Amino acid sequence: MAAAMDWLPWSLLLSLMWETSAFYVPGVAPINFHQNDPVEIKAVKLTSSRTQLPYEYYSLPFCAPKKITYKAENLGEVLRGDRIVNTPFQVLMNSEKKCEVLCGESKPVTLSVEQSRLVAERITEDYYVHLIADNLPVATRLELYSNREGDDRKKEKDVQFEHGYRLGFMDVNKIYLHNHLSFILYYHREDLEEDQEHTYRVVRFEVIPQSIRLEDLKTGEKKSCTLPEGTNSSPQEIDPNKENQLYFTYSVHWEESDIKWASRWDTYLTMSDVQIHWFSIINSVVVVFFLSGILSMIIIRTLRKDIANYNKEDDIEDTMEESGWKLVHGDVFRPPQYPMILSSLLGSGIQLFCMILIVIFVAMLGMLSPSSRGALMTTACFLFMFMGVFGGFSAGRLYRTLKGHRWKKGAFCTATLYPGVVFGICFVLNCFIWGKHSSGAVPFPTMVALLCMWFGISLPLVYLGYYFGFRKQPYDNPVRTNQIPRQIPEQRWYMNRFVGILMAGILPFGAMFIELFFIFSAIWENQFYYLFGFLFLVFIILVVSCSQISIVMVYFQLCAEDYRWWWRNFLVSGGSAFYVLVYAIFYFVNKLDIVEFIPSLLYFGYTALMVLSFWLLTGTIGFYAAYMFVRKIYAAVKID
Fold this sequence. Notes:
By secondary structure, the chain is an alpha+beta fold.
């Protein structure tokens, strides 16, 4: 009964994670359509996991309306490379269209040699086209058949969806373009009073792309066309060495659905296998808490024995034979080298920790839904700016504790060191993206706006927090520091710093590496990630495991009579970032098909920023856990 009661809180928490991962707070109000109301089809961008370079929709010679209108984007959409623009598709609510020519109804569209070469290049680079209807992204249905019991008659159909549709395909060194789009839109009929007209809401947007040769399409009056029957038609080939003539056509089919508007994103958000996430969570919880419990018992039992022995009034001979962590009590709180840089990095780590915690928690509650495009990235950027007051406060108080005096210089270092590295790397990468004319390049006005946010919001808040943190009473050290440093004995090989990084990083990385796969897939393969309930639990496990490992590593170091733990603990606690780097290289080699220089540079440049940020985050968590532990144990012993 007691064991069951112990697991009850965890069961409630896990059930909460499950519910909140599917909970959806819409970013926009539902739009009600009447019969034959226009449903606007907009284009977002072209993406490819092979190049990692998004492009605008009209970077290719698609049919364009008379007036091209771009939607005003938020900061997150700009950073993601989204450029939402109108298209000439004419779609009416619950109105079928068998076949209609998009443009060039009197004569086919002619692609020049340069345009044909560009289209062929995008097809060979495996680009996808992303459209939206009523803010719903288009998806291509994939039907996979699995033979689970070895009987061909018992094949089960597994329906999956991929985002967007393929621009074209290759077959026997020939390139074909998908020039006909069969739109399938699902609507939900709203229940109204009898005397009112029915209203409809769009709940799913699918497309079946087809490649149909010019000669097989029969065009008529008023943009109408007739699709070839059966499989008699040939695909539309694109020869990159000559001009190509073709028609862009589309058809529209409507189907009624039982899916309600509030649940219309479930199709997109359930593309990942939830069972794998549950396996990841259960595995992480069992392994991490089991190992952390064992490590905690070892530390507590050993410490109790040590403290009991040290606090006994033994004779002088026993005292002379003492060794271990008590002997360095006069040096353990000696300020380290470069205290300003250390406190600045830890202040940035506090900023990251507060920002990530709030973003994941808010997203877990469903307030950053995928319908609000770019909301997650926009919220993260603004939160990091505003969390500067907490980062500055913690850095200022720690800097004063480490006997620092130049608080203005320390505040400037805190406000510029980590953000400056991030901005510098992103600016260099952005120059390469500019050279490729990609929509992923941050425009110059946006870059100026980011600089204004940095120096107009983050910098003053860091200075404000640093001022009050530096004025506050420094942390009380339980023992005095000797004037003359103690000589450090020769250390064993396993006390090497790099060995410590390898040892300390295994457990936190093991708690999160399965979730890391889905995060990488969302970033580099244009997938949706919305299981923030699982991510929140993984984050809590990461904090616990980093704290436990950091305490163990600093205890072993002090037992070896090495009191230089400040920098070493910060570096070792972030050891899981090394494994994240190794995993990123493995993911690049085995999961991605990137062969060109600039996409590879982008991947490793942004991965370096991720690894740096993760090292700051885990290093800060481990440092403060170890600092509280060291103060606690030295406050528990009697020092003569």
